[in-house]
């Protein structure tokens, strides 16, 4: 029989325990544990949520890896075409983990109304394009239909629609810049069949999605000439390794860049979230541990007489320390239980009701995204329990200083 655990249970269940002098301190310690796990869960959920949401949005606009011409053009506009007929298109033969390869071509232009104008990048795509991303953020209408021989349908952001005071199914006049083959400005009319709002202001302010054949015609390109390829990977975690593989499997005149390379500043910024999360976790565990140490010391000092009696009956210091450590573990688990209930409730409320909003100009999202997995919850709880428990071992040594003769006499 584990008599240490038996005595610890009796102490916890006793009425004196609930009405003792240490009761307020114990409640504060449990509250500190609960608040600590709540803050840690929220920090991890929001930090991971922002990272996943921002990188998924960038991949939705640009793909995980872009294969383009090897030139010095750093803009979004496709200036020098490459051949669509490549060994790796429509599928890499020697690279696994690739979900889709889609062609694109970008053209700079201006949308004009009777009272205003707006600069845009016309992104031309084809039937191989994966519309999953834009369908998720579609607020009105539908995606363009490419089943026709030539389509004038385009997808426009809500940001541009609001600035130009446009509505769904309106016809918009677009003026495109000169090319090396044509010195004249080109005017085209397009029908807005869909409106999206990704919350990624950098792209929402400029991006218009339409038929790649329109861009080819504007640039005087042939059907076999495109701006580049976008590679969609099955897992973002493999982007660096797959980026190197892709670079090794394309022609010498082509270049490939991952979105982490193209937008290094943004990805360096979101990686800073990890440092902030670890700092918050460390502070919360430290605060919770200090409160638990205080509660343990009060529990020990409050039961000096019991410790003296147990020693007089033959119990050693290790066994008596176990009694109080079991007691402390119960308090930690109680705090973790309520902390998880409250913390996960807050996360689920934010996930479903989008209570907290953000400025997309700064954070690239409209609402605070959250992402939590069972592994995160398990690691946070086990880590908090172990760290707090280890912090209690040293102060529990005060029991070895209590002498039966003095403690019983004192009682």
Please give a structural write-up:
By secondary structure, the protein is an alpha+beta fold. It is 51% helix and 18% strand. The chain has 15 helices and twelve strands. Strand 3 (98-112) and strand 4 form a beta hairpin. The longest helix has 40 residues, at 23-62. It is elongated.
Number of strands: 12
Terminal-residue CA separation = 29 Å
Report the structural category: alpha+beta
Beta strand %: 15-25%
Radius of gyration: 32 Å
Count of helical regions: 15
Largest sheet: 6 strands, mixed, barrel
**Approximate helicity band:** 40-55%
Mean of residue pLDDT? 89
Instruction: Name the overall outline.
Output: elongated
Q: In a few lines, what is going on in this structure?
A:
The chain is of the alpha+beta class. 51% of the residues lie in helices and 18% in strands.
Could you outline the blueprint of secondary structure elements for this entry?
Blueprint (H helix, E strand, L loop, with lengths): L2 H11 L1 H4 L4 H40 L2 E5 L12 E2 L14 E15 L4 E9 L6 H5 L1 E4 L11 E5 H7 L6 E6 L9 E11 L4 H4 L2 E5 H7 L6 E2 L1 E6 L5 H10 L5 E5 H4 L1 H39 L1 H9 L4 H37 L6 H4 L10 H20 L10 H7 L1
Parallel strand pairs: 4-9, 6-8
Antiparallel strand pairs: 1-11, 1-12, 2-10, 3-4, 3-7, 3-11, 5-8, 6-9, 7-8
Helix pairs in contact: 1-12, 3-10, 3-12, 3-14, 10-12, 10-14, 11-15, 12-14
């Amino acid at each position: 029989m584990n008599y240490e655990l038996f005595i610890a249970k009796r102490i916890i269940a006793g009425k004196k325990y609930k009405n003792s002098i240490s009761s307020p301190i114990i409640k504060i310690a449990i509250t500190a544990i609960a608040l600590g796990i709540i803050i840690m869960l929220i920090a991890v959920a929001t930090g991971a949520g922002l990272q996943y949401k921002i990188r998924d949005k960038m991949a939705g606009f640009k793909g995980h890896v872009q294969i383009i011409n090897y030139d010095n053009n750093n803009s979004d506009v496709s200036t020098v075409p490459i051949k669509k007929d490549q060994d790796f298109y429509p599928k890499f033969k020697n690279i696994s983990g690739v979900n889709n390869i889609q062609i694109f071509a970008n053209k700079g232009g201006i949308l004009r109304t009777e009272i205003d104008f707006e600069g845009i990048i016309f992104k031309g795509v084809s039937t191989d394009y994966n519309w999953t991303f834009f369908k998720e953020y579609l607020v009105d209408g539908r995606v363009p239909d490419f089943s026709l021989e030539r389509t004038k349908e385009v997808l426009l952001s809500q940001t541009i629609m609001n600035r130009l005071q446009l509505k769904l199914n309106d016809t918009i006049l677009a003026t495109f810049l000169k090319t090396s083959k044509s010195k004249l400005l080109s005017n085209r009319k397009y029908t807005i069949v869909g409106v999206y709002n990704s919350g990624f202001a950098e792209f929402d302010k400029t991006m218009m999605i339409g038929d790649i054949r329109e861009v080819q015609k504007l640039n005087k390109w042939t059907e076999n000439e495109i701006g580049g390829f976008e590679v969609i990977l099955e897992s973002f975690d493999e982007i660096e390794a797959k980026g190197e593989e892709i670079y090794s499997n394309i022609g010498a005149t082509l270049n490939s860049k991952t979105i982490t390379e193209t937008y290094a500043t943004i990805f360096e910024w979101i990686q800073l979230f990890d440092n902030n999360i670890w700092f918050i976790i460390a502070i919360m565990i430290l605060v919770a541990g200090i409160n638990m140490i205080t509660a343990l010391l009060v529990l020990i000092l409050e039961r000096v007489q019991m410790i003296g009696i147990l020693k007089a009956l033959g119990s050693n210091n290790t066994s008596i320390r176990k009694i109080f450590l079991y007691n402390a573990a119960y308090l930690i688990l109680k705090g973790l239980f309520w902390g998880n209930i409250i913390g996960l409730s807050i996360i689920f409320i934010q996930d479903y009701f989008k209570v907290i909003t953000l400025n997309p100009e700064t954070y690239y999202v409209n609402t605070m995204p959250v992402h939590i997995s069972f592994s995160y919850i398990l690691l946070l709880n086990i880590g908090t329990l172990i760290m707090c428990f280890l912090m209690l071992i040293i102060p529990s040594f005060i029991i070895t200083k209590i002498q039966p003769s003095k403690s019983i006499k004192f009682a």
